[in-house]
Each structure stands twice: as C-alpha cells, then as structure tokens.
Amino acid sequence: MQVWDPVVRLLHWALAGLVFFDLVYDDGGYRHRIVGYAAAVVVLLRLSWATIKRSHSLKPSIVETRVYLRQLIAGKPPRSKGHDPLGLWMVWLLWVLVLLLGITGWMSRLDMFWGDERVEGMHTFLANMLMASVAVHVLAVCAMSLIWKENLPSAMITGRKRDHS
Ligand code: HEM
Ligand code: HEM
User: Fold this and answer.
1) CB 95, CB 47: distance < 8 Å
2) Residue 162 has what pLDDT?
C-alpha cells in the first residue's frame, strides 16, 4: 500500500541531503548559508504540504505516546502505516531544529549580533542537537525495521509498505 506520497519522499531526501551537507561543511561560508536556508525552506514546504494534503496526522499525542511506549517496553509495538506516536516527536524535533538553525544562522550575520558569541554558541548547540537527533532517528528507523521486519528506508524511497501486518 502507498504510505508516503512523492512530495513527502522528495522533501525527506532533500532535507536529509541538505542537513548532511551543512553538518559536514560547517565553515559558515556562502555555500553553508545557502544550503542551510534551503533546508529551512524544505521544512516550510513540508509543513505547507501537510496542511494541503492531510494524509497522516502530524499532531503528536501524549496519550497515544504513553500507550505506545507501554507496548514498546512489552516488546509488542503495533506496526504503523505512517509515523508511530514516538517517531512523530522526533520528526517535530528535527523540523524545529532546522528552522531554529536557519534563524540563528541568519541572526549571526546581522550587524546587531556581529561577533556576538551567544548567537554563535546557540547555532553550534542547535547543530550538535541536530546531529545527535539524526543519529537517534536513523538508529530508531533501523530498530523498527528489524522489529517489524519491514524495510522502512525503502518505504521512504518507493512510498510503499506491505498491506498485511
Ligand atoms: C540545517 C541548517 C544548518 C546546520 C545543520 C548548520 C550547522 C552549522 C555548524 C555545525 C556550524 C559550526 C559551528 C562551530 O564550529 O562552532 C555552523 C556554523 C555557522 N553557520 Fe550554520 N548551520 C545551518 C544553517 C545555517 C544558516 C541558514 C546560516 C545562515 C546564515 C548559517 C550560518 C552559519 C555561520 C555564519 C557559521 C559560523 C559561525 C558560527 O559558528 O556561528 N548556518 N553551522
Ligand atoms: C540528515 C538526515 C535526516 C533528516 C534531517 C531526516 C529527517 C526526517 C523527517 C523530518 C522525517 C519525517 C518525514 C515527513 O513526514 O515528512 C523523516 C522520516 C523518515 N526518515 Fe529521515 N531523516 C534523515 C535521514 C534519514 C536516513 C539516512 C534514513 C534511512 C536510513 C531515514 C529514514 C527515514 C524513514 C524510514 C522515515 C519514515 C519514518 C516512519 O516510518 O515513521 N532518514 N526523516
């Protein structure tokens, strides 16, 4: 069955590529800044797409997350068609971090904050948080792929997951 439409898939891999680029080429130079802004634009496009096409709910729920965590601890997390309730928090964390990096990166270039170490420190801190979050995200994707015996990265490429549970 189709779970991720082409726009979601395209924006996911675009975001992953842009974020990866900026984490590696972190000199704050022209390329870094353009790529960083592009990553923020990709997040905004994804959020706009979610308001146009409401295929999966992107609203995190504490109640559902609690239930899901209990099932996960018991070793029986139910398979999800879209994002699982826990994964949805991570999705938002990744989006918010990219947007905040765009804002602090922009701020660090303003005359007002020129040479202000607090803004640079914030940008560095957010970048470190993003790096750690991406690592957790990829590990969680691999873990859930093993638990559900379903290749989730491939679903993010083809858009399809198997019908039966
Ligand atoms: C996904 C978005 C971004 C990521 C992951 C990212 C990541 C990073 C990292 C890891 C550093 C090195 C920090 C250090 O060595 O202390 C850095 C520095 C820098 N970034 Fe970004 N960045 C992003 C977006 C932007 C944007 C949009 C701008 C826009 C102007 C920007 C401007 C800078 C500047 C000027 C520096 C060097 C000064 C500093 O350390 O603050 N970045 N960035
Ligand atoms: C810098 C790197 C990455 C970032 C910033 C990132 C970010 C995201 C975001 C924001 C989503 C939510 C997608 C949406 O609803 O639009 C997502 C989902 C997903 N990502 Fe990544 N991602 C990265 C790397 C990867 C890599 C390397 C893989 C493959 C191993 C991967 C596999 C997936 C999968 C399978 C999903 C769907 C998860 C689910 O089934 O709930 N991502 N990612």
Assistant:
1) yes
2) 86
